[in-house]
Amino acid sequence: MTEKDKPRIRPVSDDVGELRRRVEELELENALMREVVDVVKKDPGASLRRLSNREKTRLIDRLRPMFSLNCLTRRLMIPLSSYHYHHARAGHDKYSDIRVRMRALFKESSSRYGYRRLHHALDLRVSEKIVRRIMREEGLVARIPTAGVTRSYRGDAPRQPRQP
Hints:
By secondary structure, the chain is mainly alpha-helical.
């Protein structure tokens, strides 16, 4: 190992407050690494800087009961405004009631309704684009009945004996 690769060891001080801050900092780092694996599903060596703000927000929400918001946002290097923006967006799905009704209607139709019929059956003022997006997100794909195959060819006519 070269001098550059060796971990730097800070000199231990006798100040109790500084030692407590250091322990809290290390506990925070340890908790962040555990949550990166659990919540974000990334490898344990993943860099916290490379996480998206949405992923950082999910981490902060999980660790919020144990650590202060200020401490978490500083450590993850995410502005408070970005945290609040992503926190507000992640919380509420304004189409959740429509999703439930669409799933029920789709099931009643034996997976036959496409987005047009579902849109009409909902009887709500919702854009067709939203209906299509919800169908895509929920995995609702209409089964298309296949046309029966017609065969006009019956083979060669059976040989008839010659009539004299």
